[in-house]
Amino acid sequence: MNTRPLVPLNVTPTEYFTHLLKDRVNLTDEPKISSLSAVIRFEMTDGDGGTWDVIVEKGMVKDVVRNSKGMPTSILKLSSAVFLNIIKRRITPQQAFFEGMMDIDGDMFIALKMNVLVSFM
Fold first, then answer.
1. What is the pTM of this model?
2. Beta carbons of 39 and 54 less than 8 angstroms apart
3. Which one of 7, 8, 58, 117 is separated from 83 by 20 to 30 angstroms, measured CA to CA?
4. 95 CA to centre of own chain
């Protein structure tokens, strides 16, 4: 049986996207947002984490793609440090947005649903 992986204290955004995100979201016991189907792009503004598209279908992460040329539904622009603080639960996505640490482009409604998805991350 697969278990939900823990987030190591020293994880990098690249390690998180390539090795942890999909299983952390898909293997959580929390109910998924079955209406959430989107491509959510995370752009790391400091160059340390790259650009990642998280492809979500019916609340489940289907794929994570680096430097995709596709069109995302929403784009979250933030530094690697802010991203790591979000996944380590030091701040919420709303805090990051309202305190100017993260910009959102595209479908704002989908981006707001990210708070629930991030709780699985």
1. 0.89
2. yes
3. 58
4. 15
